[in-house]
Design a protein that fits this description.
Layout (H helix, E strand, L loop, with lengths): L1 E6 L2 H17 L3 E5 L3 E6 L1 H4 L4 E7 L6 E5 L8 E5 L1 H9 L6 E8 L3 E9 L7 E8 L1 E2 L18 E4 L3 H11 L5 E6 L5 E6 L4 E6 L26 E6 H9 L7 E7 L3 E8 L2 E8 L3
Antiparallel strand pairs: 1-5, 1-7, 2-3, 2-6, 3-4, 4-18, 6-10, 7-8, 8-9, 11-16, 12-13, 12-15, 13-14, 16-17, 17-18
Helix pairs in contact: 1-3, 4-5
Length: 284
């Protein structure tokens, strides 16, 4: 099992740093899945226990100038590592003006991702800063726990308003309640609601638009045949929503939200080559 990679392009390095910074805001610990063509950050088991789920994928070719890996076996050419994304994010922050960033899987005393950052120097010799980030190697028998989550059969899918606007609304609302109701319909309307014994606050968004989703057989999801004005809703933990909005260091070109009535809210953020999915289960 081997892995080594290198980034020389500063724009790619800073973009990768922003992605890991976003992941670090959303997950204390997650699974890093390495394949020949892609990297994935996955937080899977929490969703089953009522926590949020996360799936982020990036094409390695858009970031790395060199990328070599050998998985656990020829027919299973993948590596699954348990990482603390904050440690990776911290190492990348030291690389903001680096000449090169190298990362490789080592096993001296325990499995580690060794990050070597080559910094510019006034003398002829470069300064190299290394970080050893401990990781856990996830055995083959557990890999099925980290497959891509299926997109739920949602009642409503809607484009999100400008995330900065949504973030400032949610930040004000979080002082009033621990939970927030997201409701939306197929006429491009979405409401964020706080309901407590003392106060009821609603922010309305209009003309957001609804994505033209279709499943593999060409049929719409369960939203087909639904009254366009009828709202689907889910009450979710406001802190989890705030984490998602506050953690966005990658400004997505497309952001949308799928609601399964009273069950789950599924956020999809796309930025050129990064796909981030975030699942927040509804509160009982």
């Amino acid at each position: 099992m081997r892995f080594r990679a290198k980034i020389v392009d500063l724009a790619c390095l800073n973009h990768f740093s922003r992605v890991t910074g976003t992941i670090a805001r959303l997950a204390r610990s997650c699974t890093l899945r390495l394949t020949a063509g892609k990297l994935f950050f996955i937080l899977a088991d929490r969703a089953a226990g009522g926590g949020a789920g996360l799936w982020c994928e990036l094409c390695q070719g858009n970031y790395f100038d060199e990328f070599q890996m050998e998985g656990v076996a020829a027919e299973h050419n993948e590596i699954y590592l348990e990482v603390v994304p904050e440690n990776l994010s911290r190492a990348l922050k030291t690389a903001q003006n680096a000449k090169a960033f190298k990362i490789k899987l080592t096993n001296k005393h325990c499995p580690c991702l060794r990050v070597a950052v080559e910094l510019p120097s006034l003398s002829t010799s470069s300064r190299i800063v290394t970080h050893d980030i401990p990781v856990g190697v996830i055995p083959r028998r557990l890999w099925n726990d980290f497959r891509e989550p299926s997109v739920p059969d949602f009642d409503v899918s809607i484009y999100l308003p400008v995330l900065k606007t949504m973030k400032s609304v949610v930040e004000r609302m979080k002082n009033l309640s621990n939970s927030i109701v997201i409701e939306a319909n197929l006429s491009g309307e979405m409401n964020l609601k706080i309901e407590t014994d003392l106060v009821c606050v609603t922010t309305h968004f209009k003309d957001l638009g609804n994505p033209p989703w279709a499943s593999a057989d060409g049929c719409q999801s369960s939203s087909q045949g639904r009254d366009p004005e009828s709202m689907a809703e889910a009450r979710i933990d406001i802190k989890k929503l705030q984490q998602l909005l506050a953690g966005q260091q990658v400004n997505p070109t497309k952001a949308l939200c799928n609601i399964v009535n009273k069950r789950i809210v599924h956020f999809v953020l796309l930025h050129e080559d990064v796909l981030l999915q975030y699942f927040i289960p509804a509160l009982a």
